[in-house]
Amino acid sequence: MVLEPMALLQGVILAQFLWLLTSIVLAIIVYFSSWQASHGLLALLARLAALGGGIVAGAKCSERAWLHGVFLGILVFLIFSLVGYGEPLFVAWPWWKAMLKMMLVAMIGGITGGLFST
Known about the structure:
Layout: H1 5-32, H2 39-60, H3 65-84, H4 93-115
Helix pairs in contact: 1-2, 1-3, 2-3, 2-4, 3-4
């Protein structure tokens, strides 16, 4: 089988958990200080969450870890976009560019996880 849904699901769940955890930590920091998080930092944290999910998906699958990473990047980016993008999806070039970046990061995570798979 080309894609293993359970490996993708585990990676998506981890990415969502990492995203939620970093969001809570950032909210606490912003609440108790005068510092404000920048858009670049939030994008970086979202990509790191996708990287972690890609590593898990790549480690859990038996073959084609890079493809699991790509699909995980698409799924995670769609979920993140639906939750917080606030603009029409699929129509703006910056949206597509951000999705390609997320796919690349998650693919690298999938490849890295595939190196550690048993």
